[in-house]
Each structure stands twice: as C-alpha cells, then as structure tokens.
Amino acid sequence: MTGSHDVHNGCDPLLTIATAITRAHKRWRIAYLAISSIRFMIILTKEIGRKRNKDNSSILKAHLYTTLDIEPCSSNHVEIEHVPCLATAITRAQKRWRIAYLAISSIRFMIILTKEIGPKRNKNNSSILKAQTILTEIVKAKDIIAIPCSFVPNIDQTTLTEMVKERDIVALRSFGSVGGVATALKTSLENGIHGHDQEVSQRRAMFGANTYHKPPPKGLLFHVVDAFKDAIILILLVCAALSLGFGIKQHGVQEGWYEGGSIFAAVFLVIVVSAFSNFRQERQFHKLSKLTNNIKVDVLRDTRRQEISIFNIVVGDVAFLNTGDQVPADGLFIDGHSLMIDESSMTGESDHVEVDSTENPFLLSGSKVADGHGRMLTTSVGMNTAWGNMMSSISHDTNERTPLQARLDTLSTSIGKVGLTVALLVLVVMFIRYFTGNTKDKNGRTEYLGSKTNLDNVFNGVVRIVATAVTIVVVAIPEGLPLAVTLTLAYSMKRMMVDQAMVRKLSACETMGSATIICTDKTGTLTMNQMKVTKFWLGEESIEEDPSIEIAPNVITLFHQGVGLNTTGTIYKPVSGSDPEIFGSPTEKAILSWAVLGLGMDVEKLKQDYTVLHVETFNSTKKRSGVAIKNKVDNTIHVHWKGAAELILAMCSSFYESSGNTKSLDEARNKFEKIIEGMAASSLRCIAFAYKQISEKEMGCHDDERTSQRLKENGLTLLGIVGLKDPCRPGVNEAVEACRVAGVEIKMITGDNVFTAKAIATECGILKQNHQLNGEVVEGVEFRNYTDEERMEKVEKIRVMARSSPFDKLLMVQCLKKKGHVVAVTGDGTNDAPALKEADIGLSMGIQGTEVAKESSDIVILDDNFTSVATVLRWGRCVYNNIQKFIQFQLTVNVAALVINFIAAVSAGEVPLTTVQLLWVNLIMDTLGALALATERPTDELMHKLPVGRTEPLITNIMWRNLLAQALFQISVLLTLQFKGESIFNTTKEVNNTIIFNTFVLCQVFNEFNSRSMEKKNVFKGIHKNQLFLGIVGITIILQIVMVEFLKKFASTEKLNGLQWGVCIAIAAVSWPIGWIVKFIPVSDKPFLNYLKRPKVVFRRTMGLINQKQASSSRFGIGCRRTVRP
C-alpha cells in the first residue's frame, strides 16, 4: 500500500498552486475557470503534438515531470490528465488571487497558442516549451503552501455507509476488499492518513464530523412556563387577578392595583428565581454529560500511533481496537486477532460476533470489543452511522430522580398535607369571623353588615381570605427540598470534577455517603501504574549487567520473538533517531521498553521475518497471552506464552540457561517458585516467558491457514522471569486511614499472586505491619470453592484477595450486600462490568478503564487514584449532610409560620403576614436558603462519623431538637408581638405588623448560620471560605431593607426607625445563643417519630388486655352463678 503515499509525495508540488486564498467571494467560479483553462490547454497541446510531432507531448510531459519532481506515472501515480485534482481540492486556501493569476495566465497563453497553430506550425516545440515555462513559473510561485491531495476520494459517502450498514460483502469485494477501499479513501493502511489539520479538516468537511445531533438543553422560557403548571401558583394568580380587578373597581387604577399587583409581582419573582435556578442546573448537567461521551481513541496518523478524542476521528482514519473499547465509528476490519464484538447495543443480540477479514469485516459504531484486538479502517462517522442516528433520536432526560429525591418528595407531600389542613382551618375560621361581622377594615369599621354590604366589598374580602389561605399552603409546602437536592448535586458534581471524579449517575453522589465497604483494585488505583522492569532472572541466575552481553544469541532471539510478537503494544521510531515511542498498557510498555533498550529488539525486522499464525489474547481470567509464529526462511513454528509467572511455570518442563543450554525443571522447580515468591514479596509483579517449537501438524495448519484455535500449553521451555515494580501512589496510606476512621473498610482485590498482594497491601496500610494474618488474605480459587455458609461467615474478615477473577469480585460483592453492607467497587476491565453493576456504587478508572467498564459504572475516577475514591466518599457524605441542613432550616420556618398564622387567625380573625410577605419568606426559604446551605464544602468532621445506614430516617433526633427549639422561640416571640406589640412599642397596628414581618425574616437569616452545623457549637468555623453563603445572606438583608423601607404599598409595610430595627435585630440574634445552648442537650439514638408510635402500641396492648380480662371475668361470673343457684 505505497501507492497512496506516492500520490502524497507527487501531488505536493502540484498543489502548491491551490493554497492560500484569502478574500475572494466567487471562488468556485474562479476554480472552475482555472480547471477548464488548464484542461483545455493540455488537450490543445497534445493535439498539436499528434498532428505535427508525436514526440512533442512527450517533451511537455517530461519537462513537467522534471519541473514538478515526480516520476512517470504507474497505475497508482499521477498522470498529467489528473491535473484537475489540483483544483478539486481548492476549498480552504488563503490566497485566492493566485488562482485568478493561474486562470489569467492560462487563458492568455491558450489564445497565443491557438494563434500559433496555423501560421507557425513549424514552431510548435517552442510554443510547448513556452507553455511548460508558464506552468513552471506558477508552480514555483513564492509563498504557496503544498496541500496533499490524499483527501480527494474516489468513492462517495452513501456507498460506504450502505455497504457497512447492510454488511454487503459483495460490494466490498467489488472495491477490492479493505485495501481497495483504503486506496479510494487515499489512506495508507501501514502509515495512516496525514495528521496535519488541513487534511483532517477536509475529510471532516467531506464526510462529516463524528458527532450526532442532540436536542439542546431546555431554555429559560421552558422552565418559566413549566413553573406556571403548578396548581398552587395558578390559584395564587387567579386570586391576584380577582384582587386586582376588585381593587381597581373599588379604589380606581391609581390606588386599587397595589394589592393585586403586589401578589402578581411576588408570584412572578418566585417563578423566575426558581426557573432560573432549574435552568442553570440543567445547563450544568448538560455540560457534564458531554465529558462523559468524550472517549479517547488510538489512531494511526503520519506513521505514528496517537490518542485523540472520539469526536476528532475522520473517515479514512486507521483506529486501534482492544478488549473493552467502544468501536468509535463504522468501519472495516484491517487486521487483528480473536476479535469478538458485542453488538447488543445496536442489534439487541447478546451473542458476541466474530470479526475477520474474509467473512465478516464489518464494524458498527457504538458496539463494544468483547475480546481480542485489531485495527479498523473508518468508513462512516457521526450521523452517517446507525449509532449516530439512534443517539440523536434519544432525548436524555436530566430530571433523573435519585432515591433521596424520592424520599424528599414523600416528606414534602406529608408536610404539604399538614399545611393544607391548617390552611383549610384558617379559611373556615376567617370565613366564619367575616360573615358574622367580627372583622374590621383599616378604618375600624365592621367589614360585613349583611345585606347593607356592597357586593364588590364582599367579593374583595372573600378573595383576600382565599389568597391568605392559599399562601399559607405555599409557605407550608417545602418546594425547596427538591431544589436543594438539585443544587447540592449540581454543585457537588462540579466540584468533584475538579477533584478528579466524574459522576455518571446522580444517585451515586448520595449512595456513596452511605458506603461501608470499598473493594478496590491494586494496579493503577493503589499504585501509580508506572511499570518498570527492575529484576530479570534467566535460568537460576539473576542478570544484573547488560543482558545482551551475558545471554546467548539464540536465547536473545527467542526473547525478541516472545516480547515483540506477543504484545498489544506498538513501537514508533522517529525519523530524527530519538528514543522510540512505545504505546500500550503500562505492563506492555515496560516490557517492550526493556526489550528494545536492554535486548536490542527490532520490531520491524521481526514482522518482516515472521508470520503470525494465531493469537490468544490476554484477559483477566486466563492471566496469560500466547502467539504462534512461523519463520519465513525455514518455516519453523514457535509457540510463545507470556503471563503470570507461577501459571507459566506450571506449563513448563524445562528452562533455558544464559549460555543457551536447556535443563529439566524437575529438580529446579522449587527453586523457581522461591524466586517468584521472593520477587513478589518485594512488591514486584512477576511475568514469565516460555516457548515451544512445534510442527505444522501439531499447529493444525496447512498452507498458512489455521484450523486449530488452541495453542500448546504444556511441555514448554521457560525463557526467563522479569519483575516489574509499580510504586504505591503518594497519599494512599492517608486515604486508607481516613476511610478506616470514617468506618469504611477497604478490601483489595487483585490478580497478582498472594505474595505481591500482601506486600502492596501492607505498604498501602490495608494490612498492618507484622500482623498475624487470620483469614484476612485469601486467593480467588479458595474463596470460590467455599460453601455458601463459609463465604458468608468469612467474607467480612477478608481484606486481600489475590489471584482473583472478575467472577470472584462479583461473588464478594454479592456476599457483602447480603450481609447488609453498602458496597463500592472499583474496576477497569471489561470483565469487571458485572461487579460494577452489582455494587451499590460502581467506580471505573478513567485512564486504564475500558469503555465497557465506564458504561457499567456510576462514577469515573479520572486519575485512577484511590485518593480520589476517598474524596468521592467525602463528597457523598457532604451531599447528604447539606440536604439535612436545609431540611432542618426549612422545617423550622414551616412549623413557625403555620402555628403563628393558625393561632392568629383563630384568635384575632386575621393573619399577621400578608400574602406578599409570606411569598417573600417563601422565596428566602426555598431558593436563597437552598442555595446558601446546599453549597457547603465537605469538612473533616464528616469523615469522623460512621456511615449513614440505608434505612436511617432523614430527620434525625438532633435535627428535631434543633428545629423545635428555634421554632418555639420564633412562635413565642411573634405571638407576643402580635397580641402585645402595639402596647409594648406604643405604635400603630401597621408598624407592629411590619415589626413582626421584619423580625420573622431576620430570625430566618440568623437561623441560617445555626443550620450550617447540626452538632458543632461553633457554627462560624470556616465561614470565610464559603463566600457564596455570605453573599446570599448579604443579598437577603439588603432586599429585606428595600422591602421594609422603600416598598411600602407593594409589601404593605411601614418605615421603621433605628430603635425598631435594633429591636428586630436583637430579637432575631437570640437565635444564636439558643442554638448554642440547645446543642448541650443529649438526644437518644432512637428515632423521634418512634415515640409517637409508642402510645398507639401501648393503647392497643391495654385494650387487648382489658378485652381479655372482660372475657375471663364473664366466664368466671357464669361459673359462679351456676354454683350458687339452688
């Protein structure tokens, strides 16, 4: 496949004329003119040559080849007739005047040339030379940048799309299979496409971007309209409309609009603030969802393997696929081994599909690689794929209801029912008082005088009473609870992104706060995943010096085969001669680097000398990979295995020495086992290499075609053992200890052998130094073979499980959940998906994690660091704690407002707070209060508490203690002001009502500080760090001053003097010492509401005992009467 690159090299000088177009407005017309002129000029020149001298066209062509520095064309090379391709590519250049210059020059010369045909036939050669001179001058024009023509395809997008979607193998063969499609797309299967921005942009412009159309997030207007659907809001608007109408009719436009207009303004303010908050949070969730879909893909560009975003892949890209990857676009299989695809997301079929180059080379976007590895040629992207069309039709609903939100909905409904009951009682009482003539207007006159009362006044009074009752319901229903959850979840998600954790499912934020056990991987999570070969054993000796000097050449050759051809990694050697770039997993990169730098391995030479016959890919169950290769020179076949040292050792019967001799393993096996144990005890990951030479008959192949799917796994010869060091991450000890203090147990589940596992667990603090182990460390096979009863008995003691399979991890999660634990599990492999789904919280790894693992998880740990897992635990507890703070704050307001309004309505026939004032309190409580309390950062105190159980009540005894104390204080103060305020302050009723309103609002402001901590006595600790909280409190106070001092008619308030303001502030400030004193009162662990259930139980038991006693007395009385009767 060198043709396409010859095209690259050949077209570069030609296309220098096609760049750099800057300001022309009719570029296509100019381009068309240039094409037509050049084509006609060339045809005309040829025609002259045929008529006068057949060699003339050869002269022109040869001179052009020489000038443009290209060779005469083969089938894959550029012909002169192909010159139009230089203009077809003119779309993104920057100096369009140069094309105009080309057109003018061509036309001028064409005219001159046609004149020369007749009168000067014998001077054709000089004309031809003049033509080539003009072309040469154009080509050599300064400041023109070459554009490769590789992006000019010989195939249309529709054909490609339909061929892959329909799996049309006949159509593919008509193109010449995958190679023919690659040629049509101007792609080199060995070197990829050009990686410069210009060609990538051209391919994206021609074939589309790898994105799909998603519905935009709902706008602010949608949320405003949605808020109007609330039945209570509609009732308030109707009341406002009626009040406005009656007011205007009774008092005229200038004075009559105040009450109704004020209600309208207050309702709209509540709606807009709530709608804006919801709009902002939806935008935040939408932004985070984009990050979830931004998958990284390995592609081949400019001969280099590089990682790009899935959104940047283009048609013609050669992409690499490994186990667990998502297929990034529609494409065709180039090469690979044992590639099995899970297409269930596209077809619904659970069976895996085998992909090969002959029978089924088609790959569909969105499917997952279940096993194997390979390369694919991208043929369709974005909306040209079935996956893109399907995803664009799916509306992603951001209104996901989490378990905590569901519980809060129930709580809101219960509180709302209480509020509705109180509002109905207030409505009935006020109606009775109004129609019995017990209410007076502002002038002290009785409002209702029977038939003497104006009908308009009656309607106005009724509307006022209904509006007051409805407003009590508005204040009573805690709409702010769902908003508080949304706010705190959105805030937490945003902050967790900064702390390297991306939340995929909202419920995980809450559930993580209740986690009791975290099952974590070792590699990359507890360790840094920066592997390096630090130990090498060949035979019974450790190779310390330069291995290439100490080891026999035949053994070196076998190592080259076993490392270079049995790998999923790749090596790129820069032309500059600098160090090679190695790609792959950390383990593969470490081994390849060791082989290249230490053993002098040349991968390109290996690929030229050997043919790969069959590959068995590595997975976490087998813990080894194998390859069968055939030497192209002598046709010998070698089987190479690489994997966990003790497993490879068990497959061997002999071993190599450094001298190149082989020995039997029978007597030395124990020594090798000791070597492996010693390396593992030093925290090294042990990888062994083994091989065996077999015949074609043993391989089961004929004429290079395999018929057997299994490689030989016994009688192998051990080549050597390497030890890879992976240091623990900094800070992992502190994170493990923090989790332990928080009552969360850490269990390490790893595929490494038991000695490595114990060493790493001790180093990380999971196991204690010199601690006598008693069932705390097990191997996967041992745990698997326990009976159900033994597993349930021992599962809580286990801290380390070594040599575990994904099934063992799943089994442990199931056992722990049965024991009542809330389990979080980390995973990175495809086979970890079942355990991630089974766990209460699935934590996948962002760097090493496969796409299958990420899609099965709830949270993605972006840096693969266990410290980030501990951070997620802190944030989970913070979410739950913030919600509880807000519940305590809001219920205090609810209880106080309901009791005050009910008592005032029953006793005085009116409520102290108007509709507008109650709506203002509702705004402070629901929106600003939620925003202030829902954005608290996690504190260290949260990690000193035990996990919250699944069934623990939302409102704890501590919360009941705090809220009842504050509510009783507010009720007593405000009722005192209601009945005695006028005499105490010697003021009017209107001023007294303003003092009540002002004091009530300021009490909530001061109580916000108390709500910052439910248990700590110092509620001001760390307050300077939460600038948002201070800002909201400041805004609330400023708005309250405006309400009282400047919005007299809107808020039905009167201006207060300095003394009255001081009294209001002093009364409200008493909330602080009350909150401090109350926290000295101890509370029972038994939920408060259980005490309310106890009288019912006692009553039922008492009644049961009474009934039993009556029944026994009746029987006794009957017996007596029978006895004494004569």
Automatic annotation (TrEMBL):
One Pfam family recorded for the sequence: Cation_ATPase
- Stretches assigned to the Cation-transporting P-type ATPase N-terminal domain: 174-248
UniProt entry keywords in alphabetical sequence: Acetylation, ATP-binding, Calcium, Calcium transport, Calmodulin-binding, Ion transport, Magnesium, Membrane, Metal-binding, Nucleotide-binding, Translocase, Transmembrane, Transmembrane helix, Transport
Location relative to the cell? Membrane
Q: Which InterPro entries match?
A: ATPase_P-typ_cation-transptr_C (IPR006068), ATPase_P-typ_cation-transptr_N (IPR004014), ATPase_P-typ_cyto_dom_N (IPR023299), ATPase_P-typ_P_site (IPR018303), ATPase_P-typ_TM_dom_sf (IPR023298), ATPase_P-typ_transduc_dom_A_sf (IPR008250), ATPase_P-type_domA (IPR059000), HAD-like_sf (IPR036412)
- Membrane topology summary: Multi-pass membrane protein
Question: What's an example of a GO molecular-function annotation for this chain?
Answer: P-type calcium transporter activity
Q: Which SUPFAM superfamilies match?
A: Calcium ATPase, transduction domain A, Calcium ATPase, transmembrane domain M, HAD-like, Metal cation-transporting ATPase, ATP-binding domain N
List the catalysed reactions.
Ca(2+)(in) + ATP + H2O = Ca(2+)(out) + ADP + phosphate + H(+)
Predominant subcellular localization, coarse grouping:
membrane
Q: Where are the transmembrane segments?
A: 231-248, 260-279, 415-435, 465-491, 891-909, 915-934, 1028-1047, 1059-1078
Q: Which PANTHER family match?
A: CALCIUM-TRANSPORTING ATPASE 12, PLASMA MEMBRANE-TYPE, CATION TRANSPORTING ATPASE
Protein task: This magnesium-dependent enzyme catalyzes the hydrolysis of ATP coupled with the translocation of calcium from the cytosol out of the cell or into organelles.
Q: What is this protein called?
A: Calcium-transporting ATPase
Question: What is the organism of origin for this protein?
Answer: Castanea mollissima
